[in-house]
Amino acid sequence: MNDALDVTLRLLVVFVVFLTFPLIVGQTEHKVMAHMQGRLGPMYAGGFHGWAQLIADGVKFAQKEDVVPAGADRRVFQLAPAVALLPYLLVLLAIPIGPSEGAVGQVLDAGVFFVLAVMGVGVLGSLMAGWASANKFSLLGGLRTAAQLLAYELPMLLAAASVAMAAGTVSLPGILHAFHWWWLPWQIVGAIVFFVAGLAELQRPPFDMPVADSEIIFGAYTEYTGLRFALFLLAEYAGIVVLCGLTTVLFLGGWHGPWGADGLGWFWTLVKTAVLAFLVIWLRVTYPRLREDQLQKLSWTLLVPLSLAQIALTGIVKVVIS
Amino acid sequence: MTPAAATAVLAAPAPPGFLSPTGVEIAFLLVGLVTLGAALVSVTTRQLVHAALWLVVALGGLAVEYLLLTAEFIAWVQVLIYVGSVVVLLLFGLMLTKAPIGRSPDADSGNRWAALTVAVAAAVALVWVVVDAFRTTWIDLDGPAAGTTEVTGASLFRHWVLPFEALSVLLLAALVGAIVLSRKAKADAAAPAAPGKEGAR
Amino acid sequence: MSHPSPDHHPVTTPPGRPRRSIPGAGLAKGLAVTLRTMTRKSVTEQYPDALPELPPRTRGVIGLFEENCTVCMLCARECPDWCIYIDSHKETVPPAAPGGRERSRNVLDRFAIDFSLCMYCGICIEVCPFDALFWSPEFEYAETDIRDLTHERDKLREWMWTVPAPPALDPGAEEPKEIAAARKTAEKLAAAQAEPADPQEGA
Fold first, then answer.
1. What ipTM did this prediction achieve?
2. How much is the pLDDT for B169?
3. What does pTM read for this prediction?
4. B191 vs chain A: nearest CA distance in angstroms?
5. For residue A154, is it within any domain?
6. Where do transmembrane segments lie in this chain (chain B) (predicted)?
7. Do residues B176 and B108 both lie within one domain?
8. How far is CA A254 from CA A43, A97, A99, A263, C105, in A?
């Protein structure tokens, strides 16, 4: 009975986080992007500085007609948003926010692999959408998504493997328990590679070639309307939360902080995640979109060698200190 | 999961039998059926991309089976490699073809009977080998998990390190081969172009 | 993420320094720019909540000062899209002095501008020789029916009171022509008055 209650409570908390955090990131993006461009952003919805803009957007999306193009592959088309969104919900289950037993949805033995595997599945949603829309822009978007995923999955995995090597475990709480502050400089290259590759996998600017709106409208999501479209957008922002949380856990020491290690672990995790989310937005505002060939080149000629070098470094240091 | 675990604990002293299946066993069987069905649909459907997507279901079902056998690490690696990469590569390739939405009339191979024979033969061989090897060996799922990362790593890098290394050499050879092939094609394409340029000058 | 190649390097590199800077310097500079912009006040005007501060020469709407209008019709004739409607009639004015001649005078009956046609070129204001038309910064006169955009003289007169005083000239600007002319006349007059006085003083 108690067990069931505990599980239900955990699932509920994770679900609430899943529903609110992406919205918070989205609202922050609205405001931060606006101010970085000398604008104010939304000011009306909800009264105070447009805090309810995304809720209003959600209501708007819910009211819209749900259109499935006549030539589309109906079932795949309708299934795609769920496939894109649900993996991130699953990933959130595995991210620990504090050192205690209760501060993680579910402790997994092979947490790193679980997280990366499930995030990779999320991209399938974009591919399904791209193919099933019966639209050339969608198809191009799907192609670019696939090419990008193939290019960036590898450096991301290698960077994560480097941390796993350093910690001697692939469980996320295990990595955090093994963390020391000097891992920060030791794994910094891996951290950058992981973060950049993660951005590319989420198709966030400057890696948003698959949805490049100036050339292929909105890539794989071109034909989507209403709630299904909103789900894709939610998936993107949930992806930001997940990526930032993961980078925090793997490379920035999660709940470790200068003080208050016992009670304030969750606070440190949240602060680091928030700073990274800000960085994601900041990068989006600052840099122009990378061309397709530049994207591939960046991954294969820069990120992959860098991550391999990081693994080599990790191995050497590990052998030296043990 | 909890009632299943309870049943398993109750049933633990008695030797396991086929007639009183535990919850995990029932789940294992059901997922196996789904996996088999998805695999069958994936080879018989005439919609190419649907075949790839059914393959995702089949591979995912396999991952769930690993999970039920407490081989967590293997399960996630299965998802990571097969669903996350192989199927993506497959879909990427399919998108480059003229695969239509709906049925492809030419998706039927002429040698379907030969293929069926080979498939059935392979399946029979595999099933026979596995059944013959393990017979009524039962994996104790309630004790310390037999498929944790640590256990898997230890057996992989202690007992099976030679096959592992042989496999990596094979993969390295494949990698080198791919590079050689792509470079050769490039050189061939560049060779006729170069004199033309000079002639134009 | 690749930093700009050396030959694309910004022109801003000061001469004399080596052209090749630290890799990623351009990327960092971009981040600095956006961050700096974020900390500054944004330039957005929150219009319906806060009225904009418009410069005095804003071309919002055309106001009519009908006392100055002589119904010369220049504005209506010069208007490129014929959006000014003027009706008038003649009145005779009794002679100013007894025995004088009766004068006839144009009296304005109707002066309307169709702002659905007007393209805010300001030619009417330029050509008016009697300073009867003025730009006003007033701009909130949208209507739901296009026919309501033809505004009659009473409305145009109301707008006249929103015309701001012309802004002061820049320091060091040439003085306005009419003031220059007036000053010259005044100087001449002063000189003419002073001349007869001079010989007396000399004597």
1. 0.79
2. 94
3. 0.76
4. 23
5. yes
6. 26-44, 51-69, 75-101, 113-131, 160-181
7. no
8. 34, 7, 9, 13, 90
